[in-house]
Protein: Pseudouridine synthase
Organism: Lutibacter aestuarii
Amino acid sequence: MEKSNDNSINLNKYISSTGICSRRDAEKLIIEGKVTINGKPTQLGNRVFEGDIVKINGQPLKQKPKTLYIALNKPVGIVCTTDSKERKNIVKFINHTERLFPIGRLDKPSEGLIFLTNDGDIVNKILRAGNNHQKEYIVTVNKPITEEFIQKMSHGIPILGTITKKCKVEKVNQNTFKIVLTQGLNRQIRRMCQYLNFEVTKLQRTRIMNVSLGTLKVGEWRELTSKEMGIINQMLADSSKTEEVSKDTFKKKFTSPNKKKFHSKKKKKR
């Protein structure tokens, strides 16, 4: 009985999908006779079926692991690090079979939403665009919240040698408020509250970008849905475009024209 092509993948595509080379380079390897399937020589157009063993120069080719994007409701006390010396590190806590790392961080005494992944590209993209995306927190403090507190928190607080960006702050009850940030300074919310003589007694992150905690209980995690990832990737694409436009504007404004003016002034003086 012949195998169906519906359950197979073109050999050159299979090789490139492992991340070792491009499809074009994979074709060269096939043409040069360096690739075998189940010990037999291959040619362009061969297909790889589930269970087939592909080798290059006699070395088995391992399929790239599935890309994972995980949302965890981090408990208090878990540290957002991959350092194995830290007994309560986040990777040990999840104990996943794949090697994961957190995107950004959430302080040890804080709880709530954090992403983990094995995709290094998206980590860099999210961290690079981090100041353009919303993160929402529910915060409880040690004394009643005043209107003055809300106003000052939302309009900017001087910490760490800068003024925090304007943000949305909303009173939830006597001692609790909701805050939406688009920046991530070290222990930002705790420092902002401390500046106003308030102490944070509980801090929970409830949303990152388009993903909310929802019904996810403390200590539980789930994979992000394809719909959630689609929106995240769109947000990141928009951020990249904005970044490129701002860089181009900067170059046009402060490089070429100024150089021309500078040189023309010099010529006039001569």
Observations:
- DSSP finds eight helices and 17 strands in the chain.
